[in-house]
Amino acid sequence: MSYQLYRNTTLGHTLQESLDELLQQGQITPQLALKVLLQFDKAINHALASRIKTRLNFKASHLKTYRFCDNVWTFVLNGVEFKELHEVQKVDKVKIVACDGKGSGSKGVDERD
Q: For labelling alongside 75, which of 23, 25, 40, 57 has CA 20 to 30 A away?
């Protein structure tokens, strides 16, 4: 099973809106719409696990909250500085949701000590 996190992206919302329109017009069945969404979940999880090679480092001045539930970590950080090679970007607040890629049927995330 793949995570459904990416349905909440611009691409995911657009796909859902298109499927809803097709459903309302009677051009597809609800079963087909569900099948398309499940395929989207698999494809986006696989693509991100296998094609993205960029590494990003970050440092936060304060860890506001953290949670581990159903094999998913959620962090809310304040005063965060992101670094990619020579570029630095600072933000006041960021929420990070991290899932185990190995459990979703795709390649896992890089585990470091």
A: 40
* 74 and 62 Cβ atoms separated by less than 8 Å: no
Distance, C-alpha 110 to centroid of its chain: 15
Alpha helices in 5-101 (DSSP H): 10-24, 30-51
What is d(CA 18, CA 113) in angstroms, rounded to the nearest whole number?
43
Q: Which of 14, 112, 2, 98 is nearest to 47 (CA)?
A: 2
Global pTM reads 0.62
Which amino acid type is present at position 52?
I
Q: What pLDDT digit, counting tens, does each position of 30-64 carry?
A: 999 999 999 999 998 888 888 888 888 999 999 99
| CA nearest neighbour of 71 among 113, 101, 46 | 101
Q: What is the biggest distance separating any 2 CA atoms in the chain, rounded to whole angstroms?
A: 53
Question: Where residue 1 falls among pLDDT bands split at 50, 70, 90?
Answer: low
Q: Which residue has the tokens 């309302």?
A: 24
